[in-house]
Write a structure and sequence with these properties.
Number of helices: 5
Distance between the termini: 24 Å
Oligomer: single chain
Strand content: 15-25%
Structural class: alpha/beta
Strand order of the largest sheet: 2-1-3-4-5
């Protein structure tokens, strides 16, 4: 009996990042959906109820920090893992990311092996 695939939502406004991350995670057997801005990410998260959300911080409409804060304020997302994948590598943004409820903070560029792990 096959277990259902884990669902991952990736939100990033850079098409190249979405394609690369989506491809690599699908190759590992995950069910991957993408969003190109914060509002789309929130809408898709409510519909899909993903196991993991990967957020860029700098996105149009709502940034990743706002998306994370809104998700964490809703009971259905309390157990959802949230990872920031962003070019912002300074300590202030990392602390802010964790303070909003992120489970991990990874900076770009990223090794696909690291991301999959």
């Amino acid at each position: 009996m096959d277990l259902p695939k884990k669902k991952i939502l990736i939100a990033d406004d850079e098409e190249d990042i979405l394609e690369i991350v989506q491809y690599n995670l699908q190759q590992e057997g995950y069910d991957v959906t993408t969003a190109k801005n914060g509002d789309e990410a929130l809408t898709k998260a409510k519909q899909l109820k993903p196991d993991l959300v990967i957020l860029d911080i700098m996105m149009p409409k709502r940034n990743g920090v706002e998306v994370c804060q809104l998700m964490r304020s809703q009971p259905q997302f309390k157990a959802t893992l949230v990872i920031f994948l962003t070019a912002l590598s300074d300590e202030t943004n990392q602390v802010k990311g964790f303070d909003t409820g992120a489970d991990d903070y990874i900076t770009k560029p990223i090794s696909t092996k690291l991301l999959v792990s």
